[in-house]
Amino acid sequence: MTIGTLLVWILQLVHTGLALFAAVVAVMAVLDCARREPRMFEAMGKRTKGFWLAVTGVSALVCVLTLWGAVSAFFGPSGAAGFGGINMFQIIGVTAAGIYLADVKRAVS
Q: Would the pTM of this model clear 0.70, i.e. be above it?
């Protein structure tokens, strides 16, 4: 194993870890949103519960699918040749989930 191959493996491991973190955050956001009262969203001026369920649900779906891509690239037949860890959709998804957790969750709690 050369130093280049080792660095690629380490980078892929970091990408997979970040993808796992993003997926956990997004799933936490959609689960939290699902258990909140619908009237609290409108009472606090934070769109509707359906809107936030859609945003966090799509966010969780995107993050879980990119996690699956990262894991399959890591353990796939090509070894660490593919980089499936972080992409733009995943960044957008975890940002949307983060906005829900940081702003909306506090308001409707």
A: yes
